[in-house]
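Researcher: Here's a chain I'd like modeled. Treat it as a single chain, no partners, no ligands.
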Amino acid sequence: MTPVLPAADAPDSDATLHVRTVWISDLHLGTPGCQAQALLHFLRHVECETLFLVGDIIDGWQLRRSWYWPQAHNDVVQKLLRKARKGTRVIFVPGNHDEFARKYVQHTFGGVEVVDDWIHVTADGCLLWVTHGDLF
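Model: Modeled as a single isolated chain. Structure tokens:
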């Protein structure tokens, strides 16, 4: 049976979900609508071999208009970097709102690999094309 993550408003629990791969997209860090606390709760209770950040992680469009960056957004970035440092492979595919990162494709920052797109091989051998999709 797969463990269920405790609710974000439940008392702290040691329950951890272990999976091969996690995909996260459209966080829009830098916007008031970002659900940073819920994401932090999720990241604290999941362990994975590979974590894909599939575009619009940071909302550069919004940040150019009006700066908004609370501590919870720093906490999300720090948690992602900590996962990379502790052995999770973190792969970042920039999207349209964080297109500024596309000039860093084929670079690694703090253990986070920046790529244009990726082919992921599932446990049963299927191939998945990982892209943000804004190019279409």
